[in-house]
Amino acid sequence: xxxxxxxxxxxxxxxxxxxxxxxxxxxxxxxxxxxxxxxxxxxxxxxxxxxxxxxxxxxxxxxxxxxxxxxxxxxxxxxxxxxxxxxxxxxxxxxxxxxxxxxxxxxxxxxxxxxxxxxxxxxxxxxxxxxxxxxxxxxxxxxxxxxxxxxxxxxxxxxxxxxxxxxxxxxxxxxx
Length: 176
What we know:
Layout: E1 9-10, E2 16-20, E3 23-27, E4 32-36, E5 41-45, E6 49-54, H1 63-79, E7 82-89, E8 94-98, E9 101-105, E10 112-115, E11 120-126, E12 129-134, H2 137-149, E13 160-163
Antiparallel strand pairs: 1-6, 2-3, 3-4, 5-6, 7-12, 7-13, 8-9, 9-10, 11-12
């Protein structure tokens, strides 16, 4: 039985939350998001708290905690937002933003142009750092994973694109 699902979700006064026709809507200073809730659950919105309440026969539904986490992510996204930072390690590896395109130079014979989704904001304060921010956690993670997939970090020299909080296990090279 889920323990996390029983907890309430707190939100500030700047965030407006509604639950109508099994669709949860949250609107905050960063944007507006909607989530379709299964018919097994209802959402009770009090002054500054939200409770996910299962229907009487679905007390042990494994989606209870998942639904609560999705609602909590939406509320945090529209009020505070999410951020991820990618680091480029390698000689000649560069990133730059031009309009809605991220231009990556990753040691290939050609440059890689990644079209940035409109929900995600990308900044390059240095040539080897990419800052991604968004109010949608799912699209932010998908964009970061796609950029990282162009050149994953390798374990011998550590070259590639990695998350800033990621640790790369290094291997010892060939011995003579």
